[in-house]
Specification:
Blueprint lengths: L9 E3 L5 E2 L3 E2 L7 E4 L3 H39 L3 H8 L1 H21 L12
Antiparallel strand pairs: 1-2, 1-4, 3-4
Helix pairs in contact: 1-2, 1-3
């Protein structure tokens, strides 16, 4: 290897563990170790992290929607018609949307998406 050539960094594309050389991952046994010193591979791994974070955010959003809709229908079934009538108005719907987004924001802070390849951003 020449003095100016970048050192090869072998990373498992599945679990994110850094390996000593090319081959299969010794930690998870699933994926091959890829050379992260290549710009194309580095870009792919960083895009994979972005996709993983977006998928995590979408799961939390759906969880929030399910919790809020269940709470609304649960309140309606409990016989509290005053609460149901209030939430059925425009102000009630806006309040449910606001609370949903607030809960989604809190869940994202409490359960952040883990990045496997954050160290590649340098």
């Amino acid at each position: 290897m020449t003095a100016g050539a970048p050192q090869a960094t072998w990373i498992c594309s599945d679990c994110g563990v850094i390996g000593p050389a090319a081959g299969d991952c010794g930690a998870c046994g699933k994926g091959p170790l890829v050379d992260a010193s290549q710009p194309v591979v580095r870009e792919y791994l960083l895009e994979d992290d972005v996709r993983r974070r977006e998928k995590h955010r979408q799961r939390l959003l759906w969880l929030t929607v399910i919790v809020m809709v269940s709470s609304y229908f649960g309140g309606c079934m409990m016989g509290n018609l005053k609460v149901a009538a209030t939430l059925a108005s425009i102000q009630g719907i806006l309040a449910l949307i606001f609370v949903s987004f607030a809960l989604w924001f809190v869940l994202q802070k409490v359960f952040p998406a883990k990045s496997k390849f954050d160290f590649l951003k340098r």
